């Protein structure tokens, strides 16, 4: 079931025109004004590009946290006990809107772990929203982690995980975002986790719908990195506001001590997830001399994205080590801009 097809532009224009021009009792002066409005809407629709670039905050996680590599066990412990102590870097998460604007980006993707202690802090988010307005930047989505497993086998733990996400749905609504990104994780067989994830996502999806917020799942390791599995979960949930955030690179199903031991075909996975997509994450790690990402064929992937009918933001998410975070963001942005022109 494809959910991301845009309404045909010609039908939209005909409908708009009909609304303006078939209205009765319109003076000549008003009719002229309405015609100008129709032309303005049509011009805007013709000039808005199919794809625009957003910036995922995780691209700068080393700079925010002040680390060169992540000690995940220590990170998890500190996040639960004193999350603000993680922020030892040279930049402040409050300034992320201005930082993104400096890269020529007008939409940002927040990560809740940078704001873990701020979920209920209305004053903080009021100030953050002001920073967005000043920078001319909007919040597209919030990536949510460390809130419990939406596919937990324990019904009570699953319910608690759903409720833990509610406050981030509320923050997303306040900031004008369209989605929160969640994880479909849990213990058990693939079939058992799928059944439990359908329950958890459906419950959270209902709350999201009440706030006008999408609940979107990223391929993010484990079963979720299996495109057939995740698209099957989406089909069973079958809710308009529950979808996916296909990531170019997160298709490792099983990790071993020396790297990925079971990796899903990324091009097949992207094709399977795009019918449910409400965003796209352009994961990058390393680049060749020509500026192409060495693990993912961006042009091939974006052709799949375009053929799905998706239109909207593609998020930069640089996680490499060969370039600095600043250089990696710029390299990813340049590659996306080149690919967009080639489509």
Shape: globular
Radius of gyration: 21 Å
CATH fourth-tier homologous superfamily of the largest domain? Divalent-metal-dependent TIM barrel enzymes
Helicity range of the residues? 40-55%
**Averaged pLDDT:** 90
Q: What pattern of helices and strands is seen along the backbone?
A: HHEHHHEHEHEHEHEEEHEHEH
* The level-1 CATH class of the largest domain: Alpha Beta
For the secondary structure, the number of strands is 10
- What is the terminal separation in angstroms? 25 Å
SS-based class: alpha/beta
The quaternary structure here is single chain
**Helical run tally:** 12
Low-confidence stretches: 5-29, 41-45
Count of folded domains: 2
| Sheet having the most strands | 8 strands, parallel
Strand content: 15-25%
> Which topology of the largest domain does CATH recognise?
TIM Barrel
Give a short overview.
By secondary structure, this protein is an alpha/beta fold.
List keywords for this structure.
343 residues, alpha/beta, TIM Barrel, 8-stranded parallel sheet, two-stranded antiparallel ribbon, 12 helices, 15% strand, globular
Q: How would you sum up this structure, described in words?
A:
The chain has 343 residues and is α/β, with parallel strands linked by helices. Helices cover 46% and strands 15% of the residues. It has helices at residues 9-21, 28-47, 61-65, 72-81, 96-102, 122-135, 155-175, 190-211, 227-237, 266-273, 298-307, 325-342; strands spanning 51-56, 107-111, 138-143, 179-182, 214-218, 242-245, 252-256, 259-263, 280-284, 312-318. The protein has an eight-stranded parallel β-sheet, covered by helices on one side. Helix 8 (190-211) links the parallel strand 4 and strand 5 (214-218). Helix 1 packs antiparallel against helix 2 (28-47), helix 7 runs parallel beside helix 8 and helix 9 runs parallel beside helix 10 (266-273).
């Amino acid at each position: 079931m494809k959910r991301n097809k845009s309404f045909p532009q010609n039908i939209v224009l005909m409908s708009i025109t009909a609304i303006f021009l078939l209205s009765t009792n319109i003076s000549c002066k008003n009719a002229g004004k309405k015609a100008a409005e129709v032309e303005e809407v049509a011009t805007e629709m013709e000039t808005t590009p199919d794809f625009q670039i957003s910036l995922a905050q995780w691209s700068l996680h080393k700079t925010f946290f002040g680390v060169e590599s992540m000690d995940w066990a220590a990170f998890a412990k500190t996040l639960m006990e004193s999350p603000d102590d993680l922020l030892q870097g040279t930049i402040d998460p409050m300034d992320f809107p201005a930082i993104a604007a400096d890269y020529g980006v007008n939409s940002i993707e927040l990560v809740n772990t940078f704001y873990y202690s701020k979920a209920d802090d209305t004053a903080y988010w009021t100030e953050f929203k002001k920073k967005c307005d000043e920078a001319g930047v909007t919040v597209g989505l919030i990536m949510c982690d460390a809130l419990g497993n939406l596919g937990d086998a324990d019904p009570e733990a699953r319910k608690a995980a759903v409720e833990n996400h509610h406050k981030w749905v509320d923050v997303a609504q306040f900031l004008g975002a369209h989605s929160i990104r969640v994880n479909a994780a849990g213990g058990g067989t693939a079939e058992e986790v799928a059944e439990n994830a359908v329950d958890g996502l459906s419950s959270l999806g209902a709350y999201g719908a009440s706030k006008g917020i999408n609940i979107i799942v990223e391929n993010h390791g484990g079963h979720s990195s299996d495109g057939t599995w995740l698209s099957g979960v989406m089909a069973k949930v079958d809710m308009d506001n529950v979808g996916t955030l296909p990531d170019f690179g997160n298709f490792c199903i099983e990790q071993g001590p020396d790297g990925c031991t079971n990796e899903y075909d990324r091009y097949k996975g992207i094709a399977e997830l795009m019918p449910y997509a409400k965003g796209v994450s352009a994961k990058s790690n390393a680049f060749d001399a020509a500026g192409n990402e060495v693990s993912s064929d961006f042009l091939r992937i974006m052709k799949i994205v375009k053929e799905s009918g998706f239109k909207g933001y593609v998020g930069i998410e640089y996680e490499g080590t060969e370039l600095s975070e600043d250089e990696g963001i710029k390299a990813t942005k340049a590659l996306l801009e080149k690919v967009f022109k080639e489509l």
